[in-house]
Amino acid sequence: MATAHKLKVTLRSVKPPIWRRIEVASDVTLAGLSDLLEGAMGWMGGHLHAFEAGGITYERPDPYEGPLRRAKDENEHRLGDVLAEVGTKMRWDYDFGDGWQHNVVVEAIEPLVPSVEYPRCVTGRRACPPEDCGGPWGFQELLEAIADPAHPRHEELTEWLPIDYDPEKFDPHEATDDMRAPRPFANDVW
After folding, report:
1. Is 151 exposed, middle or buried (0-12, 13-18, 19+ CB in 10 A)?
2. 158: closest CA among 169, 172, 147?
3. Which one-letter DSSP state was computed for residue 15?
4. What are phi and psi of 132, to 5 degrees?
5. For 3-126+170-180, CATH number?
6. Closest CA to 70 of 84, 90, 97, 50
7. β-bridge mates for residue 52, sequence order
8. Does a cis peptide bond (omega within 30 degrees of 0) precede residue 119?
9. Where are the extended beta strands (E) located within 65-176?
10. Which of 147, 129, 145 is CA-nearest to residue 19?
């Protein structure tokens, strides 16, 4: 029987929390799941990423490692096999330079509902940090600067942000659309 995983994805080291609750087919590969997580969270893609579950690392294959490869190929492993039970979890790292780490927890595994289009984002909280803002610490400084017109970097960082950026805004319908769309920078790995 085909199933769906209900996952809660929470960005680590950010207060107040930024999180998403998503539903995806259990047979998605971890490579495919990474694209879905990028879309749900609001990341643009293009940065390296990796999963860690049960002490095992899964990532995009590196052709230069050959037989010395320590990580498993994310294209060869499916979500339902790696996280086979409710309550299991993994870490998903995105953009090694900025160091964004996410907790991914299985909240439920249920039969696919024929009337539901997967993947989808059911709910969440707060906007994703802007790409390349310096990780959790840079994001915290960014939030402080844009909230305080007297901050020495207020003008610089306000101009750098997308025009409509609101750190409190989140729309699950937009996140669902982003999960279903190609990642804007998927082929431009930085």
Report:
1. middle
2. 147
3. S
4. 60, 35
5. 3.10.290.30
6. 50
7. 57, 91
8. yes
9. 72-73, 89-94, 100-111, 120-125
10. 129
Nearest 10 degrees: CA dihedral of 57, 62, 68, 69?
20
Rounded Cα distance, 24 and 61, in Å:
23
- Within 8 A by CB and 6+ apart from 182, the residues are none
Q: Where are the alpha helices (DSSP H) in 5-88?
A: 30-41, 79-82
Does the pTM surpass 0.85? The reply is: yes
Supply the DSSP string of 134-153, one letter for each residue: -HHHHHHHHHHHHH-TTSTT
Strand 72-73 to strand 56-59: parallel, antiparallel, or no bridges (unpaired)? parallel
| Residue 29 bridge partners (DSSP) | 78
Contact 104, 7 (CB under 8 A): yes
Nearest CA to 4 out of 111, 81, 120 is that of 111
Fill in the DSSP letter of residue 66: G
pLDDT digits (tens, 9 = 90+) for 4-50: 999 999 999 999 999 999 999 999 999 999 999 999 999 988 889 99
Q: Per the structure block, which two tokens stand in for 75?
A: 């294209």
